[in-house]
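Quick question, first post here. What does this chain look like in 3D?
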Amino acid sequence: MPKNALYAQSGGVTAVINASAWGVIEAVRGHPAHFGSCLAARNGLLGVLGEELLDLEEEDPLTLAALRHTPGGAFGSCRYDLGTLEEHRAQYERLVEVFHAHDIGYFFYNGGGGSMDTAHKVAQIGREMGYPITSVGVPKTIDNDLGCTDTSPGFGSAAKFIATVVREASLDVESAHTSSTQVFIMEVMGRHAGWLAAAAALAQEYDGRPPMLILFPEVPFDQAAFLHQLQMAIDTHGYCVVVASEGLKTPDGSLFAVAETSDVYAHIQLGGVAPRLAELIRQEAGYKLHWSVVDYVQRAARHLASRVDVEQAYAVGRAAVEGVVAGEHSFMPVIRRDSSRPYRWSVDHAPLDRVASIERGLPTRFISPDGYGITAACRAYLRPLIEGEDFPPFEGGLPCYPRLRGVLRPQRCPPMSFSDL
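> Answer (accepted):
Ran it through. C-alpha cells below.
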C-alpha cells in the first residue's frame, strides 16, 4: 500500500507559505497510486514529535484550495531544531515512532535555512536508523537568504509591501516637511541579509524621489558618515526617508540594537534599530522625525502579494511532490531565473546538504558605492519579483481568509515529554 505523506511548516511564516502547502496537498492527491493520505503536523516539527497530526480528509476541499490566498501558517509553525543523532538520539527515535505509527513514508518540511537542515537530518533517518523516509524541503523565507535559488518564496510579496508603504509614507513626509517631519525611519526585517532593505529602493521614481538612505547589515554603520549623508539629503530635498535593516551592525561587528528578550532558538531577538536611530538624529542633528517598525506586517500582508511570488510558492510545493514521484529524495525545489527581460523562471532541484543552514547575503555588486543605496543590477534583479497582483477575495470590505477545522488524528503512540528529548 502507498505510504502517507506528512506536510509541516516551520519558522517565521510568509504571506504565501500556504500557497506552497496547497501545492503539496493538491499534488499528493493527484498521485493516489504513489501516496496514501496527506496529513499535516500542527505547529511544525513540534507537532510531529507530539503526535499532533491533522487529518486533511476532514477538511472542506474549498477551504484547502483557499490556502492559496491565505496568509499566516494555516497548520501552525514552530522554531525548533533537531540536534545531532549522536547527542539527541531520542528525538529521532520519537520521529520514527510517530512515522511508523501513522505509516508515513514522505515528509515535506516548508521553511528556511534551518528548516532545510532539519529536513536533511530527517532524510538521514533511513540510513542511520533503518526507517524508510523520503524527506524534502519546501523553501520559504522573506529574508531571501536561502542558497542555490534565485529567490525564496515569500520574499517577493514582502518586498512589494515594503516598497509600497515606503512610497506612500514618503509622499506623506514630502507634503509637510517644510513645517513638520523631515525624516521618516522605517525598520525592516533582515538578521544578516539586506534584501528586504534593498527592496525599499524600488519605491524611488525615475527622478530619485523620495530621497532615501538604506542601512544594510552588510555595510558597517558609520555614525558620522550617515549623519553627513542625511544632512546633504535634507539640504537638497528638505526631507529624507531612512530604511534600516534590523540586523544593522557597527564597525566592530556588533549589532547596533537588540531587543531585551531572546527567542527559543537562544538567538538574540532583533529590534530597536529605528528608535535608536531616531534618538541619534534628534541629539546630533535636531531634525523633526517619525519612525516605524513594520515587523510582522511585512510578512503577513497577503492583500498586496506579488503575483509572481504566489505562483512561485505554489510551484515549489507541487515540484516537491513531483520530484518525489520521479524518484528523487533529499532535495529542495529552487527557482531558476531563465531570463530577466522578459522575466522567465522555472523550477529546478538542489540537494538538501547544499542548502541546509546556508545564508545568502546581499552581494556587494548590488550595493551602491556610497553604501546607502542599490545598483542598477540590484534593481533589475528585484523588479520582476514584485510584479503583478493576486488579490484574495473580499467580503464585507475585508479580505476573506477561511480557517481549517483542524481535526487531529487519534494518537497511537505513548505520550511524550519534551524534557526527555
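The CA atoms of residues 123 and 135 lie 5 Å apart.
Residues 155-176 form the longest helix (22 residues).
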